[in-house]
Structures are given as C-alpha cells and as structure tokens.
Amino acid sequence: MKLLALLSLAFSLLSANIALPENFQADFIQKITNTKEKVITYSGKVRFSNERLFKWSYKEPTQKEVCTDGFELLVVDHDLEQVSAYMITKGIDIAKILQKAILHSENIYMAEYENKKYTIQVDKKQRLHSIAYYDDLDNKVQIVFKHMKYGKGNLPTQSMKCNYPRKYDMIRG
C-alpha cells in the first residue's frame, strides 16, 4: 500500500548520516510517476517529532492527513469523510538505516533498507532537501522539501495528531 510505503519513506528520511533534528517542519511536493509515465503531484506540509511521530497534511489535489506514532497509521480523507486505521506490523530500525547510508556525491546520499534504495539530497546546511525511491508498484516517488525548519525538543503532541469529526466513517485494516 502506498501509505505504508510513505510511512517507510518518512522513517527513512532519518537515515542518511544527516544530522537528525529533534523535530522538523516543512512544505513538500510529492510527485509519483507510474510505469506509463503518468504523473500525479501532491503538496502539503509535513511535521516530524521524536523519531516516531509524523504528520503529513496533504492540501492538493485532495485534503488528506496521514499520522503515525510508529505503531498505528491513521489516514484521514476529508473529501471522503473517512478514516482508515492500520497497525504497523513491521517496524523500521532507524539505526540500521543510518549505518547503511553512504555519501554518493556532494550532498547526495544513498541508502538501502528492506530491499528499497533511497536517494537523499541535502542542502548546503545538511538539511533534508529531497528523497526519491521506487515504491512496491514500481512507481517513481520524489518528495521535495521546501522551507525546512529544524527544531529542538518535541513538537506539541496535539499538533501531531490527525483531527477529524466523529461523524467520519472509520475503517480498521
């Protein structure tokens, strides 16, 4: 499932011997290119805190939130008024990813984790700039981060949760 691959990607953001901040926030543009060269572009904001909490807030072309605490993944589709909840059964060992990441060329790192290869680019300040990889369906995925803000300490827990009205349908997977 693309969302689990996205979660895997999110954890792999931490992998490339890049100085890991205690938290970060950024705007993102995500391009997914399928094997027939069709491209879909998403955009929004991402938040990361304490190595396990991620929140992806998609704004275009649809409003969606993807949140995880490292154990459960929630996907809130505001257009469909639906929430999907998944237990994460396969953990990601960030330390192993960090150990495997190598500098490929100036500001470009390569990492392989669980049979996926990631290309990670950082800016001049060694902050995350972009990540590219192929998902389980052979789609090329590229995420470019803009306005990256690294911070210290944990972000407020409430800001990392997916918020949705109780009337939304809940699907447990």
Explain what the structure shows.
This protein has a single domain, classed as outer membrane lipoprotein receptor (LolB), chain A, CATH 2.50.20. The chain is globular and about 50 Å long. The relative contact order is 0.26. The chain starts with a helix and ends with a strand. Strands 7-8-9-10-11-1-2-3-4-5-6-12 form a twelve-stranded mixed β-sheet, with helices on one face. A hairpin with a 4-residue loop joins strand 5 and strand 6 (82-87). With 173 residues, it is mainly beta. It is built from two helices and twelve strands; from the N terminus they run αββββββαββββββ.
Summary tags:
twelve-stranded mixed β-sheet, globular, outer membrane lipoprotein receptor (LolB), chain A, single chain, mainly beta, 173 residues
Mean pLDDT comes to 83
Order of helices and strands: HEEEEEEHEEEEEE
CATH superfamily: Lipoprotein localisation LolA/LolB/LppX
Q: What coarse outline follows from CA principal-axis ratios?
A: globular
CATH topology term: outer membrane lipoprotein receptor (LolB), chain A
Q: Which structural class best describes the helix and strand composition?
A: mainly beta
The share of residues in helices is 10-25%
Proportion of residues in β-strands: over 45%
Poorly predicted parts? 11-16, 91-95
Distance between the termini: 11 Å
Number of beta strands: 12
Radius of gyration: 16 Å
* CATH class categorisation: Mainly Beta
Query: Number of domains in the coordinates?
Result: 1
Query: Biggest sheet, strands in spatial order?
Result: 7-8-9-10-11-1-2-3-4-5-6-12
- Distinct helical segment count: 2
Which architecture per CATH?
A: Clam
How many strands, which pairing sense, and closed or not: the largest β-sheet?
A: 12 strands, mixed
